[in-house]
Design brief:
It is built from 7 helices and 9 strands, in the order αβββαβααββαβαββα. Helix 4 packs across helix 5. The protein has 2 domains: 44 residues; 178 residues, Glutaredoxin (3-Layer(aba) Sandwich). About 16% of the residues have low confidence. Helix content is 43%, strand content 17%. The strands form 2 sheets. Strands 2-1-7-6-3-8-9 form a 7-stranded mixed β-sheet, sandwiched between helices. By secondary structure, the protein is of the alpha+beta class.
Length: 226
């Protein structure tokens, strides 16, 4: 049946509105399903089977996971089971994500002293040698760790040279590894994301996106757990 021309515009507006509602609902539903899939995969993790390929050449200034205390570690593969007995934060992050770097800063502020200015969230800080040079003096100062939490910084879809530059521009005893494969295996929804693992090797919590207050509470809870 033909539409009366005087009602055509109203009809098209109605169709557009219904279409927009369907698209928004479908997008939100898809995001919710993806988040649920990620959570299911994370809580089913067997820590004793986790293996990471370390990004060689990154800076590590503390004794963690049985690794020697030196900048250039010969060990390529890190077995997560060697970290058992200490709480772990597994960070999914990337140098190309400013939000990731900002959340890394929050972790630093929570766990370590003398590091509040040791990292610049802006992506440009990684591409400008002058910015890295300004931070180099900070990277020479050892961090004072206020917790025995081990931080594994799993870079996602990142190149090794960027991760190496980043690690040398900050003063933080993170263990830098390639996290791309695990990121996809867990069906992660994006970066930044943090997984909190107890001393016994059990996943206790996870964090997705930028929520500094929630991150602070979860780190505190992990640190205080027996």
């Amino acid at each position: 049946m033909p539409i009366d021309p005087k009602f055509f515009n109203r009809f098209m507006i109605m169709v557009a509105a219904i279409t927009a509602i369907i698209i928004i609902f479908s997008t939100l539903r898809h995001a919710q399903v993806n988040k649920q899939d990620f959570e299911s995969e994370v809580y089913a993790l067997d820590i004793q089977e986790l293996r990471f390929e370390r990004v060689l050449g990154t800076r590590t200034d503390s004794l963690q996971c049985g690794l020697a205390q030196q900048e250039e570690l010969a060990t390529q593969t890190i077995h997560a089971e060697t970290c058992l007995g200490k709480p772990i934060i597994l960070l999914f992050w990337a140098t190309w994500s400013g939000m990731s770097q900002e959340m890394n800063q929050r972790v630093l502020e929570q766990l370590y002293s003398d590091t509040a200015n040791a990292i610049q969230p802006a992506n440009s800080s990684l591409s400008q040698n002058s910015s890295l040079s300004q931070n180099s003096s900070l990277s020479q100062t050892s961090s004072t760790q206020n917790s025995d939490i081990i931080v594994i910084a799993a870079a996602v879809r990142d190149d090794a040279s960027s991760v190496i530059r980043y690690s040398h521009s900050i003063s933080a005893p993170f263990i830098y590894v390639d996290g791309t494969e695990l990121f996809h295996q867990l069906k992660a929804t994006g970066v930044p994301a943090q997984i909190f693992i107890s001393r016994e090797g059990t996943v206790t919590d996870l964090q997705i996106g930028k929520d500094a207050e929630a991150l602070q509470q979860k780190i505190k809870k992990l640190a205080e757990a027996p």
